[in-house]
Design the sequence.
């Protein structure tokens, strides 16, 4: 796969990255059995063997179990560490953390960032995280406090670069104004089923500031992928069905799968969107890589955009 620079950092990654949210096969760590763990490890190894170099995690994915599964892979195959970049996230706290009646919330306090980072390092069995991201904007965030925590993690060598996720441009600008180093990624939901970031200033800001946009759920969580379907009672059934038909027609022209075309559509954007492929199935993980070879023309890019909008352009 081709490589690209990540933001203004000294890091490069492949144009498709691998997301580890599903490698435990569940969101409840109590449900994981040894077979599921092995399956998760195989998915990570399949992504590595297929050439993906950026692996995305979050502390909340199966409450840390996804990071731990990757940690096991890294202990089994220590040579993998230097070949890949590890990204993870903090800042979301589930209900019951730390007290039984604590609500679901976001927490960018310095103490939470620092503690979360320590825990992720331990679970992942690494000494340094390549890209540490704030998961969802904490409406109580104090940029100066975050900057202090980031600086400490940087000085201690625990994190190389920082990024954000689900941040609107104004949040990015405010946080950046307090930092002595550039934020290198903004991980957002952008795909053919979610077009907001194309027009709300997110991608413009990425272009202007050289921030790499990472696309989460690039297949909309699965329905845009090969074999994906739209539930008949879905409120956007007609629109989504027409989009899948158009996607299939364009994919057929390029002799690739629907999945590959949905990813290639993201890769066409000049902001250098890096889709985070989330499959836990080795065959699907390998198929997605073909998106890197597709040179989608403008006409077909717009054909898909119009189908995704469900309405013609003005
Ligand atoms: N920052 C955030 O707020 C946020 C939120 C959500 C996700 N994320 C990140 O984004 C990553 C990707 O999210 P996602 O898993 O929802 O991504 P996705 O690629 O949109 O969806 C993956 C799902 O699609 C299914 N799928 C069906 N057909 C497929 C095909 N032909 N090829 C590939 N997948 C197919 C997969 O099933 P199989 O496993 O059976 O292939 C899997 O269940 C996560 O791992 C995480 O790193 C971030």
Sequence:
């Amino acid at each position: 796969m081709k490589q690209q620079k990540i933001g203004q950092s000294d890091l490069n990654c492949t144009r498709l990255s691998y997301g580890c949210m599903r490698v435990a096969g569940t969101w409840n760590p109590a449900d994981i059995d040894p077979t599921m763990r092995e399956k998760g490890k195989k998915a990570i190894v399949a992504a590595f063997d297929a050439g993906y170099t950026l692996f995305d995690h979050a502390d909340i994915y199966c409450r840390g179990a996804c990071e731990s599964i990757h940690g096991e892979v890294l202990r089994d195959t220590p040579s993998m560490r230097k070949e890949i970049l590890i990204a993870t996230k903090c800042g979301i706290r589930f209900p019951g953390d730390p007290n039984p009646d604590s609500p679901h919330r976001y927490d960018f306090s310095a103490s939470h960032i620092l503690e979360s980072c320590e825990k992720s390092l331990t679970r992942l069995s690494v000494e340094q995280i390549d890209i540490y991201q704030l998961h969802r904007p904490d409406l109580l965030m104090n940029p100066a406090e975050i900057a202090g925590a980031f600086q400490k993690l940087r000085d201690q060598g625990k994190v190389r670069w920082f990024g954000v996720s689900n941040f609107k441009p104004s949040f990015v600008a405010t946080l950046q104004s307090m930092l002595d180093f550039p934020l290198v990624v903004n991980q957002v939901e952008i795909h053919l089923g979610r077009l907001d970031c194309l027009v709300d200033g997110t991608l413009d800001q990425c272009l202007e500031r050289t921030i790499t946009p990472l696309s989460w759920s690039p297949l909309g969580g699965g329905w845009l992928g090969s074999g994906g379907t739209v539930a008949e009672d879905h409120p956007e059934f007609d629109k989504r069905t027409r989009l899948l038909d158009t996607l299939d027609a364009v994919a057929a022209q390029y002799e690739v799968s629907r999945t590959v075309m949905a990813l290639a559509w993201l890769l066409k954007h000049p902001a250098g969107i890096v889709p985070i492929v989330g499959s836990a199935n080795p065959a699907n993980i390998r198929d997605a890589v073909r998106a890197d070879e597709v040179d989608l023309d403008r006409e077909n890019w717009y054909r898909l955009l119009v189908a995704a909008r469900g309405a013609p352009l003005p």
The chain has one domain: 3-229+272-278.
